[in-house]
Amino acid sequence: MSVLGIDIGGTFIKFCGKEKNEIKTGKISTGNDINKVISELEKIMKNFQPDVLGIGVAGLYDKKTGKLTHSPNIKFLEGLPLKRLLEERFNIPVIIENDASAAAFGEYCYGAGKNSKILVCFTLGTGLGGGLVINGNLISGVSGSAMEIGHTTIDIEGWHCHCGRKGCLESYVSSYGLERMYFMLTDKKLSSTEIITLANEGNTEAMKAIEEFSKYLSTGLMNVIHTFNPDVVVIGGGIPQHYPAVISLAVSSLKNKAFSLPFRDCQIKKAELGEFSGAFGAMALAERLIDESS
Fold first, then answer.
1. CB 187: neighbour CB atoms within 10 A?
2. What is the mean pLDDT of residues 57-78?
3. 168-199, pLDDT tens digit by residue?
4. 33: how many CB neighbours lie within 10 A of its CB?
């Protein structure tokens, strides 16, 4: 039986499938329209013709209702019975997970987390997502909303987060968090991509902003290391992909914050699957669904 994994984001649909035992990946841009998304999914499905479909999607996915309940970047999907809609359209079983959870499972099965006992995954981009795999099992919670690392509070009177709360880790450790830090240093408004480009060129102010960013990242790492005592933490997403030094900066800061015992036994790694971690994870979840039903 063949499987396909798809990661639905605000800008791109990324997919990962197997043809003649060879894994193929790709991405298609999409707009804020459910019909456009379905149309693009149909093209991908036609090429791969899977028996089971795995989906990773940004936001809170309610396992009990099959609906996406909260997704700042793809609001047009909120409230839709996504699982039922896709199963009826394609007439195959569909499994859906939060995109960061799917990314964690992808890195466990195919990437930097292979053979780990307890894997925590951070996805660093527009927002901050998290995933957890323990002894090969994805831990996504009773409702499907576990590991919302980005919305753990690090300062009750801190910066405003896109979720509407104050002081969330995401408000500091995200693309818009980095943009705020750079603005506070320079009074200039630049995108996170522009800041990272400047940092890679050796710009002092951009590098300072990323160093400050890494300190907050290290606080998030400390919290999960103290909570889960993992043997591997994988950090993925656009920011570490384009400025890998942010990870070593965070680890240097973490050394002075974390308890030495859990820190000793934890490897902190850059994601190996890049932007396709979520698609790989969705594919692996579809494979597992087949195994469980056979």
1. 7
2. 87
3. 999 999 999 999 999 999 999 999 999 999 99
4. 10
Is 231 in contact with 118 (CB distance < 8 Å)?
Answer: yes
Total domain count, the chain: 2
3: enclosing H helix or E strand: strand 3-8
Domain that holds residue 83: 3-102+275-293
DSSP 180-193: HHHHHHHS----HH
**Cross-strand bridge partners of residue 186:** none
Query: Which of 223, 222, 212, 219 has its CA nearest to residue 178?
Result: 212
pTM for the model stands at 0.94
Q: H helices of 11-141, where? A: 34-48, 82-90, 99-110
Question: What is the average per-residue pLDDT within 84-105?
Answer: 95
Let me know if 164 is exposed, middle or buried by CB neighbors in 10 A (0-12, 13-18, 19+). exposed
Q: Are the beta carbons of 41 and 35 closer than 8 angstroms?
A: no
211 belongs to a structural domain: yes
